[in-house]
Inverse folding.
């Protein structure tokens, strides 16, 4: 049986303008600069630079398409935009640092990693067919320097994609005699074990390196798991001899591709969005000047509107022109508003973070970072948590102690032995210090680390210690062991 009924539901939706504002807030400085340039290029009603805007008659008594021509009751764009100070509207203000020079930073154009490898093939005597296979092998090397495909798969790929029919034996021969001879040493290996052997065999074979080769070839699993006593027993060597061999292995590069200075990764330039200085014992916050561009309504549109206003006869094309101008002016006005609102939001949020972590910014002592979550800042400044998250996740601040990612100042809280709230960052710092100071011959297990932290007034469980240790990118006790 079909029934009809009315249902009321309250639903909050963001307008397109609000969504665009959120996207602007999320952008870091360099991306924001590009966004501003794009908007200026796409909207000729928007202009940049320090040129003074035109006088107040910019928007005087212009024509509305719904009003007959020559009517005394013409359309006023100033009323349409509903903002009395549009002609002199600025996003420029005095809350940013003025020591940022607007200049491009040149980047050196070098060879990519694969270009570097391919150019070395010219030093080998290869026929056309061999060169084609060798170039395919070079193209199969990933950024770490490894060939992840099996030789059988490479033979199949050559046949299907290059129409080159070869054999496993021929590919292995080219790998051994050509690819594994390329620089940096170790490239073209299928796994870590093979890469380490290639690197060792390229060096002068002194006793410690010969033993290192034996260890990698015959007892790689024991070496990886740091079962040093088993290695000593297997090879009938002294602890000192093993120590020298391990030292040789530790000099090798587990990712030979990453050692190439001209790698094809784009150099990332970090531009701080904020600067915090200490002036007369007080913190001073400023916004990077690149976040505060000067923008105003284009004088070109002023001239167009003036010409239209003075025209006695208004054609249909002029009506369409004024409608087009209306849309562009509205978009320009909104963008200038959004940029100014972005500045205010960034400063308001960062100022709250700075005040919350005042002790840290005055001293640089990580142990003085207070517990702070996104909601703390959101509640204080009266904004949504998602807005604070957008500011924190992709922005950097220049401090007297280096350039920091803002989200690093946020951390959960825990209770210490006295029942006081402390930052998990503080516990991680102490854990890191304890591990650095441990006896590397007998590294501390997570259980022992938990006991030490408990003695120092931080009662946390062993599994929590393991979680923090992993977040600090520190291995388990067995893998921290040294001779």
């Amino acid at each position: 049986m079909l029934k009809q009924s009315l249902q009321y539901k309250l639903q909050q939706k963001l307008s397109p303008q609000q969504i665009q504002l959120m996207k602007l807030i999320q952008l870091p400085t360099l991306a924001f600069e590009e966004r501003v340039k794009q908007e200026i290029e796409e909207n000729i009603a928007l202009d940049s630079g320090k040129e003074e805007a035109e006088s107040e008659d910019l928007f005087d008594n212009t024509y509305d398409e719904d009003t007959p021509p020559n009517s005394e009751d013409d359309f006023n764009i100033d009323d349409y935009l509903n903002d009395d100070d549009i002609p002199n509207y600025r996003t420029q203000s005095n809350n940013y640092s003025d020591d940022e020079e607007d200049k491009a930073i040149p980047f050196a154009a070098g060879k990519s990693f694969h270009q570097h490898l391919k150019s070395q093939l010219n030093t080998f005597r290869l026929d056309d067919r061999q060169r084609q296979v060798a170039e395919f092998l070079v193209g199969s090397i990933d950024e770490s320097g490894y060939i992840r495909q099996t030789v059988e798969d490479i033979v199949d790929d050559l046949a299907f994609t290059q129409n080159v029919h070869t054999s496993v034996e021929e590919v292995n021969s080219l790998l051994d005699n050509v690819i594994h001879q390329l620089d940096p040493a170790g490239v073209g290996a299928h796994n870590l074990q093979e890469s380490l052997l290639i690197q060792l065999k390229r060096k002068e074979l002194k006793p410690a390196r010969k033993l290192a080769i034996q260890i990698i070839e015959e007892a790689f699993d024991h070496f990886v798991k740091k079962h040093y006593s088993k290695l000593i027993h297997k090879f009938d060597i002294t602890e000192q001899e093993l120590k020298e061999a391990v030292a040789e292995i530790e000099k090798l590069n587990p990712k030979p591709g990453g050692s190439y200075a001209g790698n094809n990764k784009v150099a990332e330039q970090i531009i701080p969005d904020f600067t915090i200085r200490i002036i007369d014992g007080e913190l001073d916050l400023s916004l990077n000047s690149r976040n505060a561009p000067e923008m105003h309504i284009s004088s070109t549109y002023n001239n167009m509107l003036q010409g239209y206003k003075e025209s006695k006869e208004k054609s249909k094309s002029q009506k369409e022109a004024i409608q087009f101008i209306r849309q562009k002016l509205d978009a320009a006005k909104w963008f200038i508003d959004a940029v100014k609102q972005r500045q205010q939001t960034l400063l308001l949020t960062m100022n709250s973070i700075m005040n919350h972590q005042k002790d840290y910014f005055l001293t640089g002592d990580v142990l003085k970072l207070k517990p702070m979550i996104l909601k703390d800042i959101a509640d204080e400044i009266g904004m949504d948590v998602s807005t604070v998250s957008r500011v924190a996740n992709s922005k950097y601040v220049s401090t007297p102690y280096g350039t920091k990612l803002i989200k690093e100042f946020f951390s959960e809280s825990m209770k210490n032995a006295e029942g006081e709230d402390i930052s998990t960052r503080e516990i991680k710092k102490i854990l890191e210090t304890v591990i650095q100071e441990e006896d590397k011959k007998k590294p501390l297990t997570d259980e022992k680390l938990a006991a030490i932290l408990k003695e120092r007034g931080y009662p946390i469980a062993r599994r929590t210690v393991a979680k923090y240790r992993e977040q600090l990118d520190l291995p388990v006790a067995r893998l921290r062991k040294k001779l």
Observations:
- The two ends are 81 Å apart (CA to CA).
- Residues 159 and 437 are 56 Å apart (CA to CA).
- The chain has three domains: 15-93+267-410, 113-259, 415-483.
